[in-house]
Design goal:
single chain, 125 residues, alpha/beta, Nitrilase/N-carbamoyl-D-aminoacid amidohydrolase, four-stranded mixed sheet, two-stranded antiparallel ribbon, 22% helix, 15% strand, elongated
Length: 125
Amino acid sequence: MSDRKIKVGAAQLGPINLDHSRQEIIQRLFNLMMEASDSGADLVVYPELALTTFFPRWFIEEEDSLNLDDFYETEMPNSSTQILFETAKKLKIGFSLGYAELTKDGHRYNPQSTRRKRWPHRREV
């Protein structure tokens, strides 16, 4: 039996502020994926809530004009993140993306979405 090694890239995203657009954030994620691929990574791991500002950084009141639901994803992949999934497939690299999810029944979650390099082996199912 041979040893199997994978190279994992930890994508340090840095702060995301309220005034950063979704397009700016996706571009940063894309650039980190390209850098990881160029470095020979098999897997890129992004932090939790990688698509939005980290909520505890802001004092939020009911009167705020901020629509908090805008920070949550209702589907994954979606129109803004699809490029990450397509690029990962083209580069033959896996990635794990943390984000805020809002379900149809109004529940909020902090999931990790994974794009695998390959389909699960039949023994993994």
